[in-house]
Amino acid sequence: QVKALAEDCSNKKTSIDSLKQRLNVATKEKSQYEQMYHKAKDELEKKDLKLTNLESKIIETECAMTELETAASQQLHGLAKESRQALETVQKKLLLTNDKAEELLTFVKALTGELQHSVQELRTKIKQAKKMGELRAYKKGLSQESVQLAASILNVSTTDIEEILEVEDDEETAKTKVEFEKDKEWLQYIQNLIESQ
C-alpha cells in the first residue's frame, strides 16, 4: 500500500511539474500578449491623437477656405462695383466727348460755309469796286455829249449805254466761274475731312 501511495505521489508530482511547466509557458505567453496589448494600445492612442489633430486641421482648413471664399467674393463684388462705376464714368465722358465733337463739327461746318460766303461777298465787292474804278476811268475819257450821241445813234437811253459799258467781258466771267468752283471744291474737301475724322 505504501508502495502504491509512493507511486501515486510520484505520478502526481510528475503531473504537477508538467502543470508547472505549462503554467510557466502560459505565464510567458500572457506576458507577451500583455506587452503586445500595451504596444497596440499605445499605437492606437497615438493614431487617435493624430486623427484628432488631423480633424482639427481639416476644420481649420475649412474655416480658412470659407474665409478666403468670403474675402474673394467681397473683393470680386467690390471690383465689379468699381469696374461698373468706372465704366459708367467712361461712358459719361464718352457721351460728353461725342457731344463736344458734334458741337465742333457743327461749328466747323458753319464756319466753313460762312467763310465761303464771306469770300464770295468779298470777291464780289472787289470786282464791283474794280468795275466802278474802270467805269469812272472810262467815263472820264467820254464826254456827256459822246454818251448822248451814242444813245441817239443806238436809239437807247443814256442809262442803257452806261449798263452796256458795265457788262463784264467773257474772260472775267470765266475767271469768276473758276474761282467759284475752287471755293466749292475747298468746301467739299473740308466736309469730307470732317466726315472721315
From TrEMBL:
Residues passing through the membrane, by range: none
GO CC annotation: centriole; centrosome
The keyword Ion transport is assigned to this record: no
GO BP, sorted A to Z: centriole-centriole cohesion
Keywords: Coiled coil
Coiled coil segments of this chain: 16-71
InterPro entries given in the database record: CNTLN (IPR038810)
Record PANTHER family: CENTLEIN
Protein name: CNTLN protein
